[in-house]
Write a structure and sequence with these properties.
The structure holds 2 protein chains of 2 kinds. Chain A contains 16 helices and no strands. In chain A, helix 3 runs antiparallel to helix 11, helix 4 packs antiparallel against helix 5 and helix 8 crosses helix 9. The two termini of chain A are about 15 Å apart. In chain A, about 45% of the residues are buried. Chain B is built from 12 helices and 2 strands; from the N terminus they run αααααββααααααα. Chain B has a two-stranded antiparallel sheet with strand order 1-2. The chains are: A mainly alpha, B mainly alpha. Chains A and B meet through helix 6, helix 12 and helix 14 of A and helix 5, helix 10 and helix 12 of B.
Chain lengths: ~325, ~300
């Protein structure tokens, strides 16, 4: 069935992707008019998670850094925003700008320490420091509400209805995705990918690989913070589990399921995972069982991710077409 | 020396240290299973925490089934064996396919196993927490005024026993020596006509056995709940890294640092006690990224 894609050339495939994205955005634009309250909430949550997963893919997919604790920055962004609003120190607009910057500052500090290490040691240090942040937030009752979290966060009246939250989220997520796309296709983004693929060679031609990695890590932290802010708008509450380690693993699975070497892969993974959660949640309380099994099967048989698989088929056929072979033959 | 007056008296401190040490021994059982599978199989097996949880639940079932105080001792013998057989199933069904895959994929696939078993546990044992009666009641007096629950003595003894047993296994038995050879050069071992697949399966069963043993040992002192596997897993992973990947004695030392660190945390700032292990791990990893003892990688 997927072989349909293998008949397209690269240019055609790109326009096909644009078409799909256009249709999805168009369908989303009118979502509040045909979705019930619960499903509108769900779609908004998916949008937030899409941004969260894509933010992880900047250091992970493009930078080749195995970040084990991205949820730290998602949580820090959300908590910073929640605390600003709850204590009334800042109005909503500056708060929503400063909160992601605080997340980015955390990422800068953690990243500055971690990028000096290679491979798995980098990963484990992000895990340790992320859990440290979680533990402090979990216990600092006076400031963060401890394990209860922060509830009933006041938001202005114009952000109280489901549809206004939805449109705010949609606009912010689309702009953020566009920005991330521009960043990864910029000269910086291309260098980052070169650093991922061959750090030694990059170093020898004078590229500062630590700086490139740190910048990727910080940008990932910033956009995760943006996703955290959107989450607070949606839920009007925050709690420590959102920056516990399992949250990070969940997002890692989304990124890998969708395909970490494609731009839209993480977004696709987020849609699939949350969609499956809801779908199985309707039928059985043991949805983790089904979700776990499907994840295992998908990861085992499509290790490059669903979108990664499609792109791979595309690239193969494009090569064959360039070689002048017949299209029908390319499938074999 | 003002700061010394802030600390509690000597006897409270000593008993806290011993309680911390007994916690450390349980952490060590789970962590050492991880470190063995990292050292030999080169797989970071997140499911190890799950086998710890299954050990506790199986021990509960067996203890209930046999009944009485004898029930627990039977459970302590049988539960880890049951868990290791289950581990064999997981190894043959899934892990075997992962040995040469990218590391991130290994991490996430073993994590998916965690999710799977969490729900299977819920189906079998339900969502309510379980408790086992402490088999040894009463306290023992260590020094003049330091006393400790008797059962903690067993926990305290179990850790060094396991560490010593593992050391003996890897250095002084045939299978252990082959295991070390497999860790160094799998192809060469295969070329000598030894079935390295079998060795891998044995090592994995061993790591599951240890995790199950840890779970069975902790069962009388805690509430047995579904989430307990994930809670200990994060700490165990950090212990393994801090100790040096694949180094048994490093893992032992790191477990002690974590356990005693948390105990002192309880004395100094009870509310922030859970912060201490992570803070210690962060500081140690910044100072010595590859662990306090030699890593096999």
């Amino acid at each position: 069935m997927l072989n349909v894609f293998s008949k397209l050339t690269k240019g055609q495939f790109f326009s096909f992707k644009l078409l799909i994205i256009g249709i999805v955005v168009l369908i989303l634009l009118f979502a509040p008019s045909y979705l019930s309250r619960y499903y509108l909430y769900l779609v908004t949550l998916i949008l937030v998670t899409v941004l969260f997963a894509t933010s992880l893919n900047i250091p992970l997919g493009y930078g080749g850094l195995l970040v084990l604790h991205q949820a730290t920055f998602y949580g820090v962004g959300a908590y910073a925003f929640a605390i600003f609003l709850k204590q009334g120190t800042l109005p909503i607009l500056p708060a929503s700008l400063i909160a992601p910057l605080i997340a980015a500052a955390f990422a800068c500090f953690i990243g500055w320490i971690c990028v000096r290490l290679r491979g798995l040691y980098f990963s484990f240090l992000t895990l340790a420091m992320g859990q440290l942040v979680w533990a402090i937030i979990y216990r600092w009752y006076n400031f963060t509400g401890g394990d209860d979290g922060i509830h009933a966060i006041p938001v202005p009246d114009f952000l109280r209805s489901g549809s206004s939250v939805f449109y705010t989220t949609l606009i912010v997520v689309l702009i953020s995705l566009l920005l991330i796309y521009i960043i990864v296709k910029s000269p910086y983004g291309l260098t980052l990918q070169a650093v991922r693929d061959n750090p030694q060679r990059c170093e020898s031609v004078g590229i500062n690989i630590r700086n490139h990695r740190l910048i990727a890590f910080v940008m990932g932290g910033f956009f995760a913070g943006v996703a955290g802010v959107l989450f607070v708008l949606l839920e009007r509450s925050v709690a420590p589990p959102m920056l516990f380690w399992t949250k990070s693993v969940e997002v890692l699975i989304m990124v890998l399921l969708g395909g970490m070497f494609t731009f839209l892969g993480p977004a696709f993974g987020a849609v699939v995972v949350i969609g499956m959660m809801t779908f199985f949640g309707i039928f059985t309380e043991y949805w983790l069982l089904f979700l776990g099994s499907i994840k295992i099967l998908l990861l085992l048989f499509l290790p490059q991710g669903v979108l990664g698989y499609i792109e791979e088929m595309m690239a193969k056929s494009a090569k064959k077409i360039e070689k002048g072979e017949e299209r029908g033959y390319a499938q074999g | 020396m003002d700061f010394l007056t802030l600390l509690p008296d000597f006897s409270t401190m000593t008993s806290q240290v011993f309680i911390g040490l007994s916690r450390a021994m349980i952490l060590f059982m789970v962590a050492v299973g991880l470190t063995v599978s990292i050292g030999v199989l080169r797989v970071i097996n997140f499911a190890n925490g799950t086998f710890y949880m299954l050990g506790a639940f199986t021990a509960w079932s067996i203890a209930m089934w046999v009944g009485g105080t004898a029930g627990f001792w039977v459970a302590l013998l049988v539960a880890p064996l049951v868990v290791s057989v289950l581990g064999l199933v997981v190894e043959a069904g899934l892990l075997r396919r992962l040995y040469n895959r990218p590391r991130l994929l290994q991490l996430l696939l073993t994590y998916a196993v965690v999710l799977l078993f969490n729900d299977i546990t819920k189906i079998i044992w339900g969502v309510d927490f379980k408790t086992i009666e402490v088999p040894l009641k009463g306290f023992v007096t260590l020094f003049s005024n330091v006393s400790l629950p008797s059962y903690n003595l067993i926990l305290l003894a179990s850790g060094p026993l396991v560490a010593f047993g593992l050391w003996f296994f890897t250095n002084h038995t045939m299978v252990g020596k082959i295991t070390r050879a497999t860790a160094t050069d799998r192809e060469m071992v295969d070329a000598l006509g030894i079935n390295s697949k079998k060795i891998f399966a044995i090592v994995f069963m061993l790591s599951c056995y240890l995790a199950g043993l840890g779970g069975a040992l902790i069962a009388p002192t805690t509430n047995i709940v579904v989430g307990m596997g994930i809670t200990i897993l994060v700490n165990a992973v950090l212990v393994v890294v801090v100790g040096g990947l694949g180094n048994i004695w490093g893992t032992f030392l790191a477990s002690i640092i974590f356990g005693v660190g948390e105990s002192f945390g309880l004395l100094i700032a009870p509310r922030f006690a859970i912060v201490f292990p992570f803070a210690i791990a962060t500081v140690l990893l910044i100072l010595r990224p590859t662990g306090i003892m030699k890593s096999v990688w």
